[in-house]
Design goal:
homodimer; about 240 residues; alpha/beta; Molybdenum Cofactor Biosythetic Enzyme, Chain A; 2 domains; six-stranded mixed β-sheet; three-stranded antiparallel β-sheet; 9 helices
């Protein structure tokens, strides 16, 4: 059975302007590979209602899971929850369960649960809350869309709580071989070898080091024995 | 007049699997901001013909420019040129001008221009070559799609040659203020201030340092004097 598929939707003017370097994509990619969920596409869109809704609809329809990152804080530019709700045709308002979590958290800290902080209790009808052990304000799962924070520490903590509840497939295994020859030299035999193992994927990632060309050849698949056999064949070809 | 818009299309199984951390997105975002071209969306797709063609078509129709990264080398998994050509309805074959560039390069290096390397001379009909000062194999511009290499050093060199030929708008200027208070405290007054400057965009990016919450407030726009005025008002509110 093929693995469940996934897409990521990053909401972030700050990434598109070059101010911030995204960190969550790399973290999610590794976590999903381990969980046996195939990350097939990532979209980064700006803090714009139409852009968020269009991407959320397309990705929700196209993949088993969608993971979003960013735009669920208390400030005016945090518009992800409302626009994911709109994309999925769900109502959204301040929900009692989320309000209770925030109230308890801010009460302990002696901080006022003001109108801005209450915005973080806006959760779509029918959504399941995602725990935020770092700063309390929850994420949520609506349909197949998992809405999480953009701050890496919070994104990672939410994902760690969420992932065990999702059904993964077989983890994708990989092995790699560094070859000290240019891609142009290895391309022919590598293509022939890849054709002999249609269930594996063979990627070639070139580099240049101290003026010499080389490539990392990465073999991916779900059958460890087959990957082992391919690596032996690779080593014979290029070692 | 609004600035030209742009999207980026990253072709890369190695990024979606978590093996490699993308570097070109951040570089392109900064370069376009300086050039006055608004990067509105980024998509990362796998090394799959349908995924590449679907994304290339959608982005080419939606934005002034599309910049692609990855998949134009000599190996079997380098399928970007053929699929961008298919998406744009252009024929593709080995082109004499690209072949001449490769022949001269490999001749100087005493390396055979074999069938694999010749694949890098596959350029769509009507495309304009993009110079590759690092390793010779050219990128190309087909319609509004600029096809470039994935290796960061080559991507950056190609972009440096390409950008001066594109018409940019006014560079987007930005200033930021670090505030040592939680977003929940600043959200109300910040939202009011943002409403007073509809031509500027106000982003709030929270952080946690030594257990204390703070936020970077970033003000962006094209009118430097207006940004200055907004920063004075911000400092009065939160300093």
């Amino acid at each position: 059975m093929p693995n469940p598929t996934a897409a990521m939707l990053v909401i972030g003017d700050e990434i598109l302007s070059g101010r911030t370097r995204d960190a969550n994509m790399h973290h999610l990619a590794n976590a999903l590979t381990t969980a046996g969920i195939d990350l097939c596409e990532v979209r980064v869109v700006s803090d714009d209602p139409v852009a968020i809704q269009t991407a959320a609809k397309a990705l929700s329809a196209g993949f088993t899971h969608v993971f979003t990152s960013g735009g669920i804080g208390p400030t005016h530019d945090d518009i992800t929850a409302d626009n994911v709700a709109a994309a999925m045709g769900a109502r959204i308002d301040i929900r009692d369960d989320a309000r209770a979590i925030l109230a308890a958290h801010y009460d302990r800290a002696g901080i006022e649960l003001n109108a801005a902080r209450l915005r973080m209790a806006r959760i779509p009808e029918g959504a399941i809350l995602i725990d935020n052990p770092v700063s309390a304000a929850p994420g949520f799962t609506l349909g197949n869309v998992h809405v999480m924070a953009g701050v890496p520490k919070i994104f990672e903590a939410m994902l760690a709580g969420l992932l065990p509840s999702l059904t993964g497939g077989a983890p994708v295994l990989s092995q790699s071989l560094e070859v000290q020859r240019g891609e142009g030299d290895i391309a022919g035999p590598l293509g022939d070898l890849a054709a002999r193992y249609p269930e594996l994927s063979f990627g070639s990632y070139p580099f240049q080091r101290h003026g010499a060309y080389g490539a990392n050849i990465v073999v991916r698949g779900q059958d460890g024995a087959q990957i082992d056999a391919a690596m032996v064949a690779l080593a014979r070809l290029f070692a």
